């Protein structure tokens, strides 16, 4: 299950040691290189069959066992997943991220700016939780992601999602902003995702307004990428506090 960061072809030979510590295990590749599948066939069959049980059984080993049965495997097959129910969360995160490219396209004639594209991609990803039927259980998923042993892979997946969104939005930066854009968007996405778990508006209208405010804050406070570290730190603290208010165990 190798993970790679998307980057312009002009940077594909850049040594991995220049990446942030969060991403040092990945390699670069060009725009033309397809993403590898996130799981082998057997694991994919079990996890994909287990996901529809999450709305009723939650992010639990019960969902995994039921998925194994539905896929024609014995209950013991769930031993393939050392992270147990958290592997089901990761499966959803990875498949949703990889599926974005097939859900959102931006015709050149539309003339959309970068911020509009990023907004559309973030909202499409969040609506994916609703489409799959797990939005009502998403606070449980956030709780699992906040457990000490699950934080590193959760942060890695968050960073990969931010990278994918910038790639699909058409970002071709090759300077230091390549990193700060992804770190900033990771913070914005985490805050917006947490907010979405209590959104009762139609089609996530309130969540989209929340996202618009965060994007505007990033544009104003982090303009020309000044003070971006301070902004990210503030947003991180605010996100944790908001999650705790919503009952997420962090």
Automatic annotation (TrEMBL):
Pathway(s) per entry: Cofactor biosynthesis; ubiquinone biosynthesis
Xref: InterPro entries: COQ9_C, COQ9_HTH, Ubiq_biosynth_COQ9
Any coiled-coil regions, as ranges: none
GO molecular function terms listed in the Swiss-Prot or TrEMBL record: lipid binding
Keyword annotations: Lipid-binding, Mitochondrion, Transit peptide, Ubiquinone, Ubiquinone biosynthesis
Domain COQ9 C-terminal, chain residue ranges per copy: 152-220
Keyword Transit peptide in annotation: yes
GO BP, one annotated term: ubiquinone biosynthetic process
GO CC annotations, alphabetized: mitochondrial inner membrane
Subcellular location: Mitochondrion
Domain of life: Eukaryota
Sequence ranges assigned to domain Ubiquinone biosynthesis protein COQ9 HTH in this UniProt record: 46-68
Its job: Membrane-associated protein that warps the membrane surface to access and bind aromatic isoprenes with high specificity, including ubiquinone (CoQ) isoprene intermediates and presents them directly to Coq7, therefore facilitating the Coq7-mediated hydroxylase step. Participates in the biosynthesis of coenzyme Q, also named ubiquinone, an essential lipid-soluble electron transporter for aerobic cellular respiration.
Name of this chain's protein: Ubiquinone biosynthesis protein
């Amino acid at each position: 299950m190798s993970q790679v960061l998307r980057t312009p072809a002009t940077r594909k030979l850049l040594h991995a040691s220049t990446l942030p510590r969060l991403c040092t295990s990945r390699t670069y590749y060009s725009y033309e290189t397809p993403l590898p599948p996130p799981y082998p066939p057997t694991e994919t069959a079990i996890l994909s069959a287990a996901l529809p049980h999450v709305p009723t059984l939650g992010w639990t080993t019960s969902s995994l066992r039921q998925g194994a049965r539905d896929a024609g495997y014995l209950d013991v097959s769930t031993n393939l997943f050392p992270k147990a129910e958290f592997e089901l969360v990761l499966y959803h995160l990875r498949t949703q991220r990889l599926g974005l490219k097939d859900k959102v396209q931006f015709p050149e004639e539309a003339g959309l700016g970068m911020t509009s594209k990023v907004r559309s991609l973030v909202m499409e990803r969040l609506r994916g939780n609703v489409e799959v039927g797990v939005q009502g259980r998403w606070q449980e998923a956030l709780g699992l992601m906040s457990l000490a042993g699950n934080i590193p892979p959760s942060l890695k997946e968050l960073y990969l999602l931010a990278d994918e969104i910038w790639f699909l939005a058409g970002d071709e930066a090759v300077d230091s902003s390549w990193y700060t854009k992804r770190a900033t968007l990771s913070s914005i996405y985490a805050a917006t995702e947490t907010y979405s778990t209590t959104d009762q508006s139609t089609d996530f209208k309130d969540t989209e307004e929340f996202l618009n405010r965060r994007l505007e804050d990033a544009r104003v406070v982090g303009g020309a990428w000044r003070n971006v570290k301070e902004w990210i730190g503030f947003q991180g603290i605010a996100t944790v506090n908001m999650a705790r208010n919503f009952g997420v165990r962090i």
